[in-house]
Amino acid sequence: MTGLPSESPYTNDPGLPSSFIAIINSFGHQQFLNQKPEGRVFEWFYSLHLRYGNVVRVGPKFVLFDDLEAVKFILKDSDMPKTPSVAGIRAHYDLPTLFSATDKTFHRQRKRILSPAFSVKYVASLEPLIQSCAKSLIKKIDSLATLSPKPSHSLNSISNQFNNESTPSINLYHLIQCCTLDIIGETAFGGSFNMIEKESHPLPIKIFEEMKRRVMCHTFPYFKTFFKKDPWCDEFISKIVKSRIEQNSKTTKHRIDILQILLNNHDPLKQSSPTSPVNIADGKTMSDFEIQDQIMEFLVAGSDSSAFTVIMAIIMLLYHPEKLRNLRLELESAFPELQNRTKSCEKEDELFLPPHETLKSLKYLNAIIDETLRLFPAALGGIMRQTTEDTIISNHLIPKDTIVSASLWKLHRSKQIWGQDVDEFVPERWFDLNSKIRTDAYYPFGSGSRLCIGINFAMMEIRIILSALVGNFDFFVRDGADLQIVQFITPSLRSKKFEVDITRLRESKKNNDVYNA
Fold this sequence. Notes:
With 517 residues, the protein is of the alpha+beta class. It has a single domain (32-516), classed as CATH 1.10.630.10. The chain has 22 helices and twelve strands. The strands form four sheets. Strands 1-2-8-5 form a four-stranded mixed beta sheet, sandwiched between helices. Helix 14 (321-334) packs antiparallel against helix 17 (363-375). It is globular and about 65 Å long. The relative contact order is 0.18. It comes from Dentiscutata erythropus. This is 25513_t:CDS:1.
């Protein structure tokens, strides 16, 4: 990646690898070695590991680990519980959810309730719903592309990667986020939110504001009365639940999805509220309030991480045009109609929407996704656990009740494990990767009993959206894009924007053929 700022704070730091400097500085630079910048703690942790080694004590009872065996022990072998700090995202400190549960018995019970909605067989049955949302995304982009300026040549030409014209562009980041939220609405709660068609919806910002409020209340409990709650999210979710209950009253054949599974385990006698949680010691049944908060959690977890992975994969491909060409060649080989269509297609109905059964076996597509998740896992700041007894980790005695963090950002960039080109985007590394590395040094979805319940769903969603975007359009990045990554609860681009000009792929090919001729 090019165009690094000359005033980079990393320029004179010999402890940082040059390729890491290239990637991080082009995503926005700050001085982290002596402070913790807002939303960039994961890079501060990285710098601490570079300076002090594999084990870093950053607080009286907070230790970072980045070596393979320590991370494997923390996440897989020991099955340590989550830290109490995760309660910061709960609606009430004493009201756990699947993600925020610290009690292992509760987590096991709640996961057993929800697992049927994430089985391989059931997730496969959701493909038509995911495809319908992906189609809405592609059609929306196609309609906008007809209004967007047509650059003279494509990103297939490495020499002309950026469009400098000051004309309206498409915020691809926003559209992808809308698509993933529509997908979670369609597959989990009975219907799309129609965010793509509307182009504007308060849901993303309202969810972000509510989660931020919860964290602030947890961080500054003495000031929580000043952090007023916006009732919008509660009212929005309440309408979803009431609508489903009304539908169920009219038929004996109920739709099976996450919402229905939650309602099937509803106990009307089990009462809880944000002010007086009662009888929530078990995860076998759910109160009204628990159902509402669990829905809120799925809206966040079921959309943000997938959207971030897709947009980072697109960014990586656009900054590495040769990888983009390789992916398109693989898609054209797997789908001959795509090769023919890009030369002659003129109809909207012929937009490319690939079936997942084929996508899941495409070697290069899956390597791109794996490489994106390696470089940009959802848990950028690490996965934290808490010791329940005095424990030996990496030959260090770690006292009981100490927070230990598996530093994924650093582990996924270990030269000893991944090679000297560890900081580069190299999908090809996955072709002959030692299976032990994939098992023991790669944790984009966590591991052990806390392995992400939605892994199968997320991978299907990412494959379909990414291949549909790459198979239909060519993208032209604008100079000055703010690609700085931040993480609060989930990672995102700080700007919430990735502005591009887009053309149908066939038009780009024609323009490029003329240019090359």
